[in-house]
Amino acid sequence: MLQNIRDNSKGWIAKTIIGLIVLLMAFTGFEAILTGTSNSQNAAAVNGDEVTLNELGQAVEMQRRQLLQQLGRDFDASLLDERLLRESALKGLIDRKLLLQGAGDADFAFSQAALDQVILQTPEFQVDGRFDAARFDQVIRQMGYGRLQFRQMLEEEMLIGQLRAGLGASSFVTEQEARAFASLERQTRDFASLAIKADPTTVELADSDVQAYYDEHASEFMSPEQVVLEYVELHKDSFFDQVEVSDEELQPLYQSEIANLAEQRQAAHILIEGDDEAARSQLEELKARIDAGEDFAALAKEFSQDPGSAADGGDLGYAGPGVYDPSFEEALYALQQGQVSAPVKSEFGWHLIKLLGVQAPEVPSFDSLKDKLARDYKAQQVEQRFVEATKQLEDAAFEASDLAQPAQELGLEVKVSEAVGREGGATGVTANRQVLQAAFSPEVLEDGNNSSTIELDPSTVVVVRVKEHKKPEQLPLEQVAESIRSHLLQERAAAAAKAEGEKLLAAVQAGEGSSESWQVQEAATRSQEGVEPKVLQALFRMPKPAAAGTPTYAGVTLNNGDYVLLRLDGLNVPEQALSAEELGMYRNFLASRAGQQDFAAYRKQLEAKADIERF
After folding, report:
1. pLDDT digits over 305-336, tens only?
2. Per-residue buried b or exposed e for 343-377, using 16+ beta carbons within 10 Å of the residue's own CB
3. If you average pLDDT over each of 145-154, 188-197, 364-373, 506-515, which comes out highest?
């Protein structure tokens, strides 16, 4: 059907289809068109607040970078599922909107002055222990933010952090609850164990048993569905040699580069919060004392109400334009080195500002930047050509019935993959999840169409089509008999061990003695080394013995098929009293856990009550 539409896309059938679509749109109403248009730039809406496609794209890219950093350099980025990344990023953005709305409803706020201090004191933005504006710009640029965008994001993070901390801090546990938890946590148990080994060598298995299992589970023994793919790859790197650059073309880039260099100024200040005359008068008195010879730094330590800089004598470090409040910055750049300003009013209060130092920008020569500028220029031109070629490949692949014509138009080679199933290959194009999704889609697998362009990585796109489709076939018994035999031997050995173990368990529970040798262990903790986790889980679920000399019994099957009988002889409650420090630790732990549970419940409540639309 799709191929028929392609073949007739330029004829009278296409015109008829378009006419029908227009007519249907008229019947469904102009409002639907407007709604679709208005949401074309949005990914979702949360109680009317929009999540834009730009925000989603940025979140997906940030999530991809974080995953690649965690997984290491050797990880194949093509294995990341774009659809799952997108879904995860969108959920995160929706949660973020809900929490910000919750913080707003609860009247949480974070001042711009406090935000400035967070930025100035962040180690990643510092050089030699001091805030560095160039370093700040470099870091946030790598994150994909401008200054205003970053400040907005940071403010939102701080508001969400306040909301989380507010809910977490409201949780508490009583001393009695903490002591009860500590008693259970520190409890040890005296037990003995008896292992019944699952031994496949003791099991008799006839060929008829293997045949019967094969017949009963025939659907499990099928060859995998596989495809052989034809594909063409378009590499961004192939365009680099096609781009030439002259010094004349680089000069505008050089001028733009040096124009961004700014003078850095080291400021110190004394802040008195408030916008009244009392604050101004106090600063005028301090200014008079400074003019009379008193030390600015000493007065800042004594009187400044900026907790982030007062201890350093008001020193704010070096920063360039655009970091401080506009009125603060205007006064700072009007000062000579060592000069102290008159009182300056900003949205944070009143300031006395002292210029401690000036760093003039070092202007690099054209020759020193030429190689970098050439790389940047080439990269820009190559990116443009790569985008254009990708669009050309997309259009050619859509119109063609095979890959020969698109390959010829762009000078590419048609390659053929090995046979591969839905699980993918180990390396190369068939290891990419998006390629596999396209290859096994109805349009490509069943209708025989070329796929759309698929991004393997930021520098490579590919178009695939199915050359050969190998459907699942029944595997012969001879090919799978050994794996069936191994499975049945292990399964029956485990069943035999369990039957024997349960028989012994019933006997000891009835009070009949056992001649077997039990392995005794005393004072086992919940995380005892050398004891199987399944054994520990079962052990600490067993009821306390009714009296001394009357143990309780249980049994557990291990992952390897062995069956273990457990005899709980007694439990031990620690006699040593909790210290105040230990009690506080337990209370903090339980309160923190309760706070996390409260915050999770709050998020679910916000989501349940919200009006959320995904476009």
Report:
1. 988 899 999 999 888 887 888 899 999 999 99
2. bbbbebbbbbbbbbeeeeeeeeeeeebeeebbeeb
3. 188-197
What Cα–Cα distance (Å) separates residue 535 from each residue in 142, 152, 491, 498, 558?
A: 50, 52, 20, 15, 8
Which DSSP letter does residue 443 get?
I
* Cα-based distances in Å from 121 to 114, 143, 328: 11, 19, 19
Residue 552 in tokens? 């309780």
Q: How far apart are CA 246 and CA 598, in angstroms?
A: 63
What are 140-197's pLDDT values in tens digits? 877 767 788 888 889 999 999 999 988 888 888 999 999 999 999 999 999 999 999 9
HSE of 273, CA atoms in CB hemisphere, 13 A: 6
| Dihedral sign from CA coordinates of 51, 56, 62, 66 | positive
Q: What is the distance between the alpha carbons of residues 470 and 608, in angstroms, rounded to a whole number? A: 47
Q: What is the mean pLDDT of residues 276-303?
A: 93
Work out the pLDDT band at 260, boundaries 50, 70, 90.
Answer: low
Closest CA to 88 of 108, 66, 105: 66
Cα separation, 357 vs 329, in Å, equals: 14
The closest alpha carbon to 357, from 404, 316, 402, 329, belongs to: 316
Q: How buried is residue 72: exposed, middle or buried, by Cβ count under 10 Å (0-12/13-18/19+)?
A: exposed
CB 249 within 8 A of CB 373: no
**All residues at 6 or more sequence positions from 138 whose CB lies less than 8 Å from its CB, including other chains:** none
Locate the DSSP E strands across 104-225: 126-127, 130-131, 188-196
Domain 262-359 has CATH 3.10.20.30: no
Contact 267, 355 (CB under 8 A): yes
Q: Report d(CA 501, CA 557) in Å as an integer.
A: 9
pLDDT, one tens digit per residue, over 551-604 is: 999 999 999 999 999 999 999 988 888 899 999 999 999 998 999 999 999 999
Long-range contacts of 531-536 (CB under 8 A, 24+ apart): 532/558, 532/564, 534/558, 534/559, 535/193, 535/564, 535/566
Specify the pTM. 0.50
Output the pLDDT for position 11: 41
- Number of helices (H), then strands (E), belonging to the chain: the values are 20, 18
